[in-house]
From TrEMBL:
Signal peptide: none
Compositionally skewed regions (Basic and acidic residues) per UniProt: 12-34
Organism of this sequence: Enhygromyxa salina
Record: residues binding ATP: K114
Domain Protein kinase: start-end pairs: 85-375
Protein name, entry field: Serine/threonine protein kinase
């Protein structure tokens, strides 16, 4: 297909910055420099049977006449217009219509216009088309065509869209190089994200194929031709089965199967990519798009489609029977875990496919740990001839002595273990159990594949190519054995999980020790030779697995056993690792004195062993202990030591990221918010580079940055980071996961703070922030309730925040209901004087005051003004309590029987408000609006 036309990317932003939601568009029918009919035949954009002709001949003729007149008479050609758009030239024609380049004089931009085939302004489908164009116009996503306008021209429907240059996903050909499979999957995943966004907006594409996605010159993929889109909940007329198509006899070429299949007034899809339900004339839904997407991805990876046939009937039968054909000569080597993910998306039964596009995209994340730089060299070396081994004299090449790494996975991560883990997850009945399984299995599949490849490479380097010594070979194999033991111990824990363990499973699977470290001689230690080392590794792996799944007490017991065994063996390296793990677990149980002792001893044993990596880890963990003890001076000194140790160690990016993470916590405790934000950004940049932009650890870093920015008063940037974190959590863990609930709450906090600051100057502009905050808080509450008995403290926190947003909106009745429930839950878990309880009591008192229930408000608020209960509360929280009480006192006194009572109440209220003003002043400029509100009240209510 010819190269497509130029795009102008109008980065029109919405109310708040959303960097992942740029508005873009293009169209698969845009071409230049070639005849439209030639392109129609080449791209498979014709229709069967032929659809109604587009009534554009008059438009083209008019354009031609004007050009001829200009040449003959030397006058400027009269521009041809479609509505307010000036037509520049015809770009091409397709099964759905004709595309023109045009110019929008009002907004000074070049656009594309499509005149739709067979749909006029009085047609039965114009209402649906307009509705869907409006939905697309509102859908601002970087991987979805952006529609500007829909209208009519001489009784013909047109759609105005953004103008883009690029090539279709079919014509896009990456260079055959290491990592090409990952690149292909990444590009298709961009298209998949566009489909997912459309599905979330209630639209189904119904004709996704490589021709309907464009790789722009900017490298971004956009999904095109949503002209077939239909609402997810819209009833669809029964279609014809492709098994009964009469034109089966007319054409049986492969190009025919790539052409859209139509009926009067509608396009059913393109046969080669149609799902089984479409072939039998049933309704297409989002899962049909998923099927088409997987067919297209398979085709790009293998160079041929999974269902190959000579005609429609044969194709339909193969699709309906799920007969995927093995590629004769696959274009690329596709790993088994990736193949399994794609095959599931092509299941005959829609219920057996991935739950949605987001789940599929999570499963397709190639090399999610981004730890395969060694594969390039390994793959090249593995192709070298086995010269000098004696096998050159034989006619047939021998089996490689280094094959068989897969057998080591039996009983560790094989089909049986996979089935048991899946069943264990399902048995929890958690709403996010399936998504947790998908994420966990994806990471463990990738880890197992990586282990097998590394196992083969280490063997071939020593045994086949004899490039490395037997001693180094042995040390690397010991390291790989340790990694296999860690995988085994984790999967053993995963075959019997509860809801709490389930919530941590994906992160645990994504955080296994890096396999590539076995290629780094600095990390290979062999200080003793003892048969008990295998048992030591099993204990360390078992304790570490329990730590990653939150089983801290069990992990502590096993870590103690590991330490005792390491001491008995006399391995300084083993002792250092056991002490590091023990100290980490102790700090997580808030046993800080014990943790400090264990970690300092780990430092000493690491120095004896010459283990710089463990030394860095011990120092960063000691920084965390200093933070927990609020010993900031000691933490700063430890940070200096850790920085020096990192410099000596050299390239250790993930350890450096952990260092910055703990250093940021210390800076935040010092009140150095800007410095904390900078450290969090450094940690984020490293994690993105090392783990991939969609890794759960990246989402955690984004959350940390968002919270630091919120503390700095950088509310818009905080919101931006919170949104990115939420996208990752939803994609990696699912929309019902507890971590996603926390992320929804964090985004609500960013929005609430923005609204709070704006409302003092522009209440109307602040309202949408509060409304969206309510939406996110409600989602958080719903997730928390679904994953607990509804009485968990986290439910109370989310209810409190929800009520705060409702209060700013003036929804006092709803706020009261949520605050009363929040308070009820908190009182079951906390003392009455707990700061969190007092916070909700204050909020409820304020709401009762607004509802006119002054006596009830006073009964709640008076205890909050007690100085003895304000020790652990920040100045802004104290000020809020005092001013809420002041207003309640003053309003309650308005009904007092005597002037003296009213005067006394006014004096008390004035004193409370004066103190509140002082506390807001101490709280800083972030609470300037609240302070000025108190000052206005004082001026309006003099003594």
């Amino acid at each position: 297909m010819a190269k497509l036309s130029k795009v102008t990317t109008d980065g029109e932003s919405s109310r708040e910055p959303r960097p992942s939601l740029e508005r873009t568009q293009s169209d698969s029918d845009q071409h230049h420099g070639r005849d439209g009919h030639e392109l129609l035949a080449e791209a498979g954009l014709g229709t069967m049977p032929r659809a109604a002709p587009v009534r554009v001949a008059a438009l083209d003729a008019e354009h031609l006449r004007n050009a001829v007149a200009s040449r003959l008479f030397g006058t400027a050609a009269e521009p041809v217009k479609i509505g307010k758009f000036t037509v520049l030239k015809r770009l091409g024609a397709g099964g759905m219509g004709v595309v023109y380049a045009a110019y929008d004089t009002e907004l000074d931009r070049k656009i594309a216009i499509k005149l739709l085939r067979g749909v006029d302004e009085e047609g039965a489908h114009i209402t649906r088309l307009k509705r869907e164009a409006q939905a697309l116009a509102k859908l601002s996503h970087p991987n979805v065509v952006h529609v500007y306008e829909i209208g009519t021209f001489r009784s013909q429907v047109f759609v105005a869209m953004e103008f883009i240059e690029g090539v279709t996903l079919r014509d896009w050909e990456p260079k055959d190089q290491p990592g090409v499979v990952q690149l292909i999957v990444e590009k298709f995943s961009e298209a998949g994200r566009g489909l997912a966004a459309a599905h979330a907006a209630g639209l189904v594409h119904r004709d996704f194929k490589p021709d309907n996605a464009l790789v722009g010159d900017d490298g971004r993929v956009r999904v095109l031709d949503f002209g077939l889109a239909r609402g997810l909940d819209e009833q669809e007329q029964p279609g014809e089965s492709t098994l009964d198509q009469s034109h089966e006899l007319l054409e049986s070429h492969d190009s025919t199967l790539r052409q859209p299949l139509t009926r009067t007034g509608a396009i059913l899809g393109t046969p080669a990519y149609m799902a089984p339900e479409q072939h039998i004339g049933n309704r297409a839904d989002a899962r049909s798009d998923q099927f088409a997407f997987c067919v297209a991805l398979w085709e790009k990876l293998h160079g041929q489609r999974p269902f190959r046939a000579n005609g429609l009937r044969q194709l339909a039968m193969k699709v309906l029977e799920g007969r995927i054909e093995e590629p004769e000569h696959s274009r690329h080597a596709v790993p088994q875990w990736l193949r399994r993910a794609i095959e599931r998306g092509m299941s005959v039964d829609p219920e057996q496919r991935w739950p949605d596009m987001n789940a599929l995209l999570a499963a397709l994340a190639v090399d999610p740990r981004k730890r395969r730089r060694w594969l390039v060299a390994g793959g090249l070396l593995a192709t070298l001839a086995l010269g000098g081994t004696g096998w050159a004299l034989t006619r047939d090449p021998p089996p490689s002595p280094c094959e068989g790494g897969e057998r080591e996975l039996v009983g560790v991560w094989d089909d049986e273990i996979r089935g048991r883990v899946h069943a264990s997850f399902s048995a929890t009945n958690a709403p996010y159990a399936e998504n947790a399984w998908l994420g966990t299995s994806r990471h463990l599949d990738a880890y197992a594949d990586e282990w097998v490849i590394m196992h083969r490479e280490v063997c071939e380097a020593s045994v086949v190519r004899q490039e490395e010594s037997p001693e180094l070979f042995g040390r690397k194999m010991v390291c790989l054995g340790q990694r296999l033991t860690e995988l085994e111990q984790l999967t053993k824990l995963l075959v019997d999980v509860d809801a709490d363990v389930l919530s941590r499973a994906v992160v645990a699977a994504s955080s296994l020790a890096r396999i590539e470290s076995c290629a780094d001689e600095r990390s290979l230690f062999s200080d003793v030779d003892d048969e008990r080392l295998d048992e030591l590794e099993r204990l360390l792996a078992s304790a570490n697995g329990r730590k990653s799944l939150g089983k801290y007490n069990e992990g502590l017991d096993i870590a103690q056993q590991a330490l005792a065994l390491a001491q008995a063996i006399g391995t300084p390296h083993g002792e250092a690792r056991a002490l590091l793990l023990l100290g980490d677990l102790q700090s997580k149980r808030r046993k800080t004195p014990e943790a400090k002792q264990s970690l300092r001893e780990a430092l000493r044993r690491a120095d004896v062993a010459g283990d710089d990596a463990t030394r860095v880890e011990a120092l960063t963990q000691l920084m965390r202990v200093s933070f927990l003890e609020h010993d900031l001076e000691a933490g700063e000194a430890l940070a200096d030591d850790a920085r020096a140790a990192l410099a000596r160690l050299g390239d250790a990016p993930l350890l450096e990221a952990d260092f910055y993470l703990h250093y940021a916590s210390l800076a935040l405790a010092r009140g150095e918010n800007q410095r904390a934000g900078e450290y969090h950004r450094r940690a984020l940049a490293i994690r993105e580079a090392q783990l991939g932009a969609d890794h759960p650890e990246v989402a955690i870093s984004l959350t940390n940055i968002s919270n630091a920015l919120l503390a700095q008063g950088e509310h818009q940037l905080s919101e931006q980071m919170a949104r990115q974190a939420l996208v990752i959590f939803e994609a990696q863990l699912g929309s019902d996961h507890p971590y996603t609930a926390a992320s929804q709450n964090n985004l609500g906090n960013s929005l609430l703070e923005q609204g709070r600051h704006i409302t003092w100057s522009d209440p109307k502009r602040a309202r949408p922030y509060f409304e969206e905050a309510v939406e996110h808080y409600r989602k958080a509450v719903k997730i928390r309730e679904a994953n607990s008995d509804g009485e968990h403290p986290s439910v109370a926190v989310n209810l409190h925040n929800l009520a705060e947003a409702q209060r700013w909106l003036g929804d006092y009745a709803d706020a009261r209901q949520d605050l009363e429930r929040s308070l009820e839950i908190k009182r079951k878990h906390m003392d009455e004087d707990h700061p969190s309880v007092m916070l909700t009591v204050t909020a409820l008192g304020r709401v009762l005051t607004e509802l006119g229930e002054y006596e009830a408000a006073l009964a709640l608020l008076r205890p909050t003004a007690d100085p003895s209960k304000q020790q652990e509360r920040s100045p802004d929280v104290i000020a809020e309590s005092l001013f809420a009480l002041a207003r309640a006192v003053q309003l309650a006194a308005s009904d007092a029987a005597s002037d003296a009572d009213r005067k006394q109440a006014t004096i008390e209220a004035h004193a409370l408000a004066t103190q509140a003003r002082a506390d807001y002043l101490e709280a800083g400029e972030d609470f300037r609006g609240e302070r000025e509100q108190v000052e206005r009240w004082l001026a309006a209510n003099p003594i």
